[in-house]
Amino acid sequence: xxxxxxxxxxxxxxxxxxxxLRCNYSSSVPxxxxxxxxxxNQGLQLLLKYTSAATLVKGINGFEAEFxxxxxxFHLTKPSAHMSDAAEYFCAVSDRGVTGNQFYFGTGxxxxxxx
Amino acid sequence: DVKVTQSSRYLVKRTGEKVFLExxxxxxxxxxxxxxxDPGLGLRLIYFSYDVKMKEKGDIPEGYSVSRxxxxxxxxxxxxASTNQTSMYLCASQSAGAAYEQYFGPGTRLTVT
Lengths: 115, 113
Fold this sequence. Notes:
The complex is a heterodimer of chains A (115) and B (113). With 115 residues, chain A is mostly beta strands. In chain A, 0% of the residues lie in helices and 51% in strands. In chain A, the strands form 3 sheets. In chain A, strands 2, 5, 6, 10, 11 and 12 form a 6-stranded mixed sheet that branches. In chain A, strands 3-9-8-7 form a 4-stranded antiparallel sheet, with no helix packed on it. In chain A, a hairpin with a 5-residue loop joins strand 7 (56-58) and strand 8 (64-68). The termini of chain A are far apart. Chain B is mainly beta and 113 residues long. Chain B has strands spanning 4-6, 10-13, 19-25, 31-38, 42-49, 56-57, 64-70, 73-78, 87-94, 103-104, 108-112. In chain B, strands 2, 4, 5, 6, 9, 10 and 11 form a 7-stranded mixed sheet that branches. The radius of gyration of chain B is 13 Å and the shape is globular. Chains A and B meet through strand 5 and strand 6 of A and strand 5, strand 9 and strand 10 of B.
């Protein structure tokens, strides 16, 4: 079965500092991996996805993530945090086995950006 | 752009009422999903559908049912609302194929009193 673990339910960074949000997955097959962002009282918006092409994936708003098979990780980074990055972030893995397209989400990381 | 709309942003219902949450997508996607989101628990899958009139149980289907009579519309039904169903409900749609992302609606915040 697939699963996703997000280390740190709350992360605080200063404006301009590096953002690092951690995601580890377990999967019995090579995975498809996704990062979503959720702003208050809104739905989830796709930041980026890994679908077995380049291991370093660039997304919107300056975010990127690197797929590391040996570490079963897909951590999200941004070189310089902006106040507008304050939001909830979710990592997800897609099951492409017999159960089809079910996504498995992590429990989320709330990012606070300190001025 | 893909658009997923949900019938209500905020809803307040009484215990025991039958509640309908509607979701409509405009991209001819085959797959549609209903999740509930609770603090500290992330998103939990209630039901999903791969085609019209088809449905599959997710991780927490108890107390819920769904209906998909048309490809673009996926309804979540709370047969008899209870206070523990107070939550944020998110609908998503997706093109067939595991590499495709899910597109989410804005969510319905349901309060059952």
